[in-house]
């Protein structure tokens, strides 16, 4: 039985995300991907960065099974088995990383998970190391498109702790965790890639 799951959004967003990653990721070292989901991004991006050890993770057992299946299918020496990692937890099963990537998580999780992501990434990264976030945000307290407003409403209907985050709030929390100001890259379908670098 094939445990690989598939998310339609991956086919749409992987190439634009990859274009940003090629510019901001180190050529070598270890990248921790938090909340890897299906594992499709991990398989695609690990192939694109043969010098990086790609460490996927997810707290959901079904997701980890899918990640492992995609990794087995990809047959890449630099793609590690997925870790059980809850971003909100104080202790992570990783001691260090040269880069941290998190795609489409902080709006589909309680805010505590977003804060935990920022704190955890700050613990792992060296000075200047990048934390790369991708997804939809509100800016200046407003949605950037009607589709984002509808998406936000649907998320909050599923769980009131979920929902699109204000970019300014995320940036302030990142500063508190030890990151510099964000580099913001406009992406297709009203998404953003937000790059923070550890400064302290």
UniProtKB/TrEMBL annotation:
<dbReference type="InterPro" id="IPR010342">
    <property type="entry name" value="DUF938"/>
</dbReference>
<protein>
    <submittedName>
        <fullName>DUF938 domain-containing protein</fullName>
    </submittedName>
</protein>
<dbReference type="Pfam" id="PF06080">
    <property type="entry name" value="DUF938"/>
</dbReference>
<dbReference type="InterPro" id="IPR029063">
    <property type="entry name" value="SAM-dependent_MTases_sf"/>
</dbReference>
């Amino acid at each position: 039985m094939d445990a690989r799951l598939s998310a339609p959004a991956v086919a749409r967003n992987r190439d634009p995300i990859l274009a940003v990653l090629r510019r901001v990721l180190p050529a070598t070292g270890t990248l921790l991907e938090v909340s890897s989901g299906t594992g499709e991004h991990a398989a695609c991006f690990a192939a694109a960065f043969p010098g990086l050890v790609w460490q996927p993770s997810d707290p959901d057992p079904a997701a980890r099974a899918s990640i492992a299946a995609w990794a087995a299918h990809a047959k890449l020496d630099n793609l590690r088995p997925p870790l059980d990692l809850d971003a909100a937890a104080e202790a992570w099963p990783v001691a260090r990383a040269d880069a941290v990537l998190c795609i489409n998580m902080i709006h589909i999780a309680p805010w505590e998970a977003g804060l935990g992501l920022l704190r955890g990434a700050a613990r792992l990264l060296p000075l200047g190391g990048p934390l790369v976030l991708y997804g939809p945000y509100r800016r200046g307290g407003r949605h950037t498109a009607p589709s984002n407003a509808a998406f936000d409403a649907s998320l909050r209907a599923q769980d009131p702790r979920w929902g699109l985050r204000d970019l300014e709030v995320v940036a302030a929390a990142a500063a508190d965790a030890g990151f510099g100001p964000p580099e913001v890259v406009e992406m297709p379908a009203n998404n953003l890639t937000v790059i923070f670098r550890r400064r302290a």
